[in-house]
Structure formats: structure tokens, C-alpha cells
Amino acid sequence: MRLRRPLARAGGGAPLGRRIARNWQLYVMIAPVIAYYLVFHYAPMYGIQIAFKDFRINKGIWDSPWAGFKHFERFFDSYFFERLLTNTLELGAYLLAVGFPIPILLALLLNEAGSERFKKFVQTVTYAPHFLSTVVVVGMLMIFLNPRYGLVNTMLVSLGGESVNFMADPAWFKTLYVLSDVWQTMGWSSIIYLAALGGIDPALHEAARVDGASRLRRIWHINLPGIRPTILILLILNVGSIMSIGFEKVLLMQNNLNLASSDIIDTYVYRSGILDANYSFSAAIGLFSAVINFILLVTVNSIARRAGGSSLW
Q1: 3-state secondary structure of 56
Q2: What is the pLDDT of residues 62-106, one digit of tens each?
Q3: How many other C-beta atoms can be found within 10 angstroms of the C-beta atom of residue 171?
Q4: Phi-psi region of 65 (alpha: psi -120 to 50; beta: other; left: phi over 0)
Q5: Which of 260, 228, 251, 280 is CA-nearest to residue 49?
Q6: What's the rounded Cα separation, in Å, for the pair 154 and 259?
Q7: How many other C-beta atoms lie within 10 A of the C-beta of residue 91?
């Protein structure tokens, strides 16, 4: 008796080449994204090895002499290590504590706005700062906070106070950085929460109104649980980048008077790698920062998964 071969499952049993040929349009659409990550994110990882070498430009990455953990030990033993790590963690945690919940609150308030015209006006006003460059934002800070003719100090003097040089005071640096960053990004960051709120079933609100629930109770028991997965995912991602503040804005706001509070790992990497040409040393510092971010990401993701919430994996 001749045995018949079972029919192959749709798609799963077909050879890879046949599946690609059958869905070539989808592969063409995703090809630029794959190429971007391969070229700009994975290929440069080859250069990480210079953190463990005494890199020489004339010898290249591969032929440069091996140095082991010499550059890491140099950074850990340096005078600036404690200050850099403390400033980076404090600024990252401050930015997370203030900058993360405000877009959520803004999205909840916009979602409850009754007038569409007012809602669009507020969205336009809060979204606009996102399109300003960092140079413009820092320039605005310098103008408004100028100790002689700035708007803020003019108001302080008119009220009987004294003029304050905010940009030169180390105690004000982190607050100015965080508040200006929140002003610039809160509108744009609220978009994803507004999209999540739009996916909540309106029947839940109608049933809550019938039961006599107030607006605050509906926000607490319907809207917040509805966007909880989105909040957790973004929180995990934000905690995982707490060490990657970026050096552009910090460098523009930085001066010799506020250096004790404004000097972070990213600005130190810029000075060591670009200005002083210590490529191996700066690569070691950057790798150390990336490892800390990775540990934080895995830890927070594990906590969220064990708590029964959403997680990245």
C-alpha cells in the first residue's frame, strides 16, 4: 500500500527561499530597518575591543596592543570617578522622577478635555518645544536667567529679592536641566499615552457613569489600568537608559563654575575621546556606562515580570 505524504503546513513547511519569494514585498519593506540596525548598531560593536587595547591609529583596531582592563582600572582609580558617577545617577534619577510622570498626567488631562478646540490648542503649545534644537533651548535659558537683564532676575529684583546667577550656581544646574527638558519633551512624550487611552473601550466609562462614578474615579479605575502596560514598558526603557543622558545639552549648559554638579560620564567621554584623543580610555568609560544600563534594564524587567505586569521579554 502506497503511503501518502501529509500536507505541509501553510507557510511553515515551505523552504525559506520560497517563503521569501512569496512575501517579497514585506521583506523589501523591512529591509531598510534591518540594514539601519546592522550598519549603525551592530557593525560598530566590532570597535568595542579598543576598550581593552592601547589603540593606535596607524596600527588599526586589530593590530593595536592588548591592554586588558588597564583603562577600566584607570577610570575607577581616577579622582573624577566618584563625582562623575554620582552626578550621572543623580541627574538620571531626577529626570526620571520628574520627567516620566508628567507626560502621563498631561495625557490624562487632555483626554478629559471637553472642548476639542481647547484640546488641539494645548497639544499644539505643548508639542511645539519638541521641534526646537538643544542650542535654542539653552540659549533661551541663558537669556531668561541672565543675572543683569534676564526676565526671571528682573522679576526677583522688582519683588525685593536679589539677582541670582542661576547658570553658574552648581545647586541650580540639575533643576534647570530637568525642568527645561520636561518643558521641551512632555507634549511629544504624551502622544503614546493618548494613543493608549484612545484604545480603551468607551463602554467601560458609560457603565461607570451609570454606577455614579466620578471623573476622578473613572480615571483611577479605568484609564490608568488601561494604559498600565504602556507605562510599564516605557518605565523599563527609561530606567534602562538612566546613564545615557547625552552630552549635548549638558555641555552647552556647563561652565567652570557649575562643573562640580554638571560634569557627567558623557561629557567626560567627550573630553577624553574627542578633545584629548584618548580613544581606548573613553571607549572603556562608555562600555562601563552601557553595562550599567544593561544591568538596570534586566533588573527592572525581571521585577516587572515577576510582579505580574508587562515586560519586554
Answers
A1: strand
A2: 888 999 999 999 999 998 899 999 999 999 999 999 999 999 999
A3: 10
A4: beta
A5: 280
A6: 26
A7: 22
How far apart are the C-alpha atoms of 32 and 41, rounded to whole Å? 13
Beta carbons within 8 Å of 252's beta carbon, 6+ residues apart: 134, 135, 138
Residues 6+ apart with CB under 8 A from 259: 170
Spatial separation of the C-alpha atoms in residues 281 and 287, rounded to whole Å: 10
**Rounded distance, CA 196 to CA 227, Å?**
6
Q: How far apart are CA 37 and CA 46, in angstroms?
A: 14
pTM recorded for the entire structure: 0.86
CA gap 107, 37 in Å, rounded: 31
Query: For 41, which DSSP code?
Result: I
Q: Give 206-241 pLDDT, tens digit per residue.
A: 999 988 888 899 999 999 999 999 999 999 999 999
Helical H segments across 64-161, by residue range: 70-77, 81-99, 101-112, 116-127, 134-144, 151-158
154's grid cell: 528682573
| CA-based nearest residue to 87, from 286, 311, 261 | 261
pLDDT of residue 277: 86
**Residue whose C-alpha is closest to residue 283's, from 23, 29, 50, 37:** 50
pLDDT confidence of residue 196? 93
Region class of 11: left (phi > 0), else alpha (psi between -120 and 50), else beta: left
Q: What is the pLDDT of residues 255-291, one digit of tens each?
A: 999 999 999 999 999 999 888 889 999 999 999 999 9
Closest by Cα among 184, 188, 177, 204 to 258: 177
> What integer pLDDT is reported at residue 7 of this predicted model?
44
Written as one letter, the residue type at 145 is: L
> 81-99 vs 170-198: helix axis angle to the nearest 10?
40
